[in-house]
Amino acid sequence: MAWIQPRSVAEAVELLQQRRARVVCGGTDLFVGGPARPLAPEQEDWLDVRRIPELCGARRTEEGLEIGAAVTAAQLWEEETYRALPALQQAAKIVGGWQIQNRASLGGNVANASPAADMVVPLMAYRAKVRLAGASGERRMALQDFIRGPRMTALQEGELIVSLIVPERMLGTAQVFLRHDQRAATDISIVSVALAAAVAGGEIAWASAAVGAAAARAYTLSEEEEQLWRGRLDAKAMARLGALYAARSAPITDVRAGEDYRRSLVDTYIQRAARTVLGQ
Amino acid sequence: MNSAQQQAMTLTINGRETVWDGDPSASLADVLREGQGLTGTKIGCRTGECGACTVLMDGRPVVSCLVPAGSAQGERIETIEGLAERADYQALVQAMLEHGGVQCGFCTPGVMVTTYAWMQQPERFDGDLGAALKNNLCRCTGYLGILRAAEQALAAGGGAR
């Protein structure tokens, strides 16, 4: 067993073919629930992607903002580059605490595919794409297709998450990330909501929202249904939106909250998010 | 590599380079305590919640119970033993004593490391140490003594590098 630190995506992909290694980044999910989750029997090595420069920063492209998979939560809320994505910054600042934020990566939050993941929720609202590299080259897919269910993704063997791509139209929109938890401390969300909206003169031109921790994976409405966000949004329109998102939830009952409570929180937080971006 | 589980790793701890032979997926907290005898770093929960195992990696606080040792290669690791040699850290120690920032003491090493890191750049959390300490559980002091101590140490010029 070895700890391997490749310096480029090409090298990492090659190592993944040769050595059947397990990808690791910040490692914050590795020890939860006991000693480090062991390698699968066929795996021999750990592949640490934190030293791959192209995974550790962001770049503006024609598509929008491409964020490297190894960018940490602390980088997201601290660095100027991400100011155009306040909902993602708010989510990054609520993940664990400062110490976790200094290690936990955006790509790791996606790969771990927890239904209660915080940073995934704004990415879903942004309609982000995942860029993947593997032996047969690169591919990209919508994040909502990539995350299949609790701890399940479309990542194939020998593949690596390279980056998350946030579409240009999302940058600089009015945004908010809201999370309901019990302790306002190191905790896991009971329900979370992210909203990005183009707002002018108290009116929403278009908006995109995602809900976390209220179903097997974070979800959005169809783009057609999202037309309901348009306009001035009086109390009735907001109530209708809240009810629609709540109806689409499929929450579980666990130690943190009951199913009904979670469903009702979806309604509350969708409406609260709407009021927040409208400055009400 | 000595066996399937072992790898020789070069770690820089408190300014000294050490070669450590072991499982690269072992937690840094265990390596520090058992491998290096640096028992100032405490282990409370092993799930990254309590913050007792906080150390600095390249000046940033991390929970060492969640850092695989292999991942710490090439980073500047500073434990509470390393910080203790600094004058501005000693100002914080003095302030903690004066304000009752320590009771049972188990969380204290982690609290000290996070607080010291915060003092280097308090504007990062808009001056709010409470926000920086979100990942450090203290069940005795109620935090007030810690906050007052940090305020005093900062006012006395601590943290200015």
Automatic annotation (TrEMBL), chain A:
Keyword Flavoprotein: yes
Transmembrane region(s): none
Molecular-function annotations in GO: FAD binding; oxidoreductase activity
UniProt xrefs under InterPro entries: CO_DH_flav_C (IPR005107), CO_DH_flav_C_dom_sf (IPR036683), Diverse_Substr_Oxidored (IPR051312), FAD-bd_PCMH (IPR016166), FAD-bd_PCMH-like_sf (IPR036318), FAD-bd_PCMH_sub1 (IPR016167), FAD-bd_PCMH_sub2 (IPR016169), Mopterin_DH_FAD-bd (IPR002346)
Cross-referenced Pfam families: CO_deh_flav_C (PF03450), FAD_binding_5 (PF00941)
Keywords, sorted A to Z: FAD, Flavoprotein, Oxidoreductase
Domain FAD-binding PCMH-type: 1-171
Protein name: FAD binding domain-containing protein
Organism for this UniProt entry: Paenibacillus sabuli
Classification lineage: Bacteria, Bacillati, Bacillota, Bacilli, Bacillales
Automatic annotation (TrEMBL), chain B:
CDD domains: fer2
Ranges of residues in domain 2Fe-2S ferredoxin-type: 7-83
Pathway(s): Alkaloid degradation; nicotine degradation
Keywords: 2Fe-2S, Iron, Iron-sulfur, Metal-binding, Oxidoreductase
Signal peptide (from-to): none
Pfam family, one: Fer2_2
A GO molecular-function annotation: oxidoreductase activity
InterPro entries, sorted: 2Fe-2S-bd, 2Fe-2S-bd_dom_sf, 2Fe-2S_ferredoxin-like_sf, 2Fe-2S_ferredoxin-type, 2Fe2S_fd_BS, Beta-grasp_dom_sf, Diverse_Oxidoreductases
PANTHER family the UniProt entry points to: OXIDOREDUCTASE WITH IRON-SULFUR SUBUNIT (PTHR44379)
Protein name: (2Fe-2S)-binding protein
Gene source species: Paenibacillus sabuli
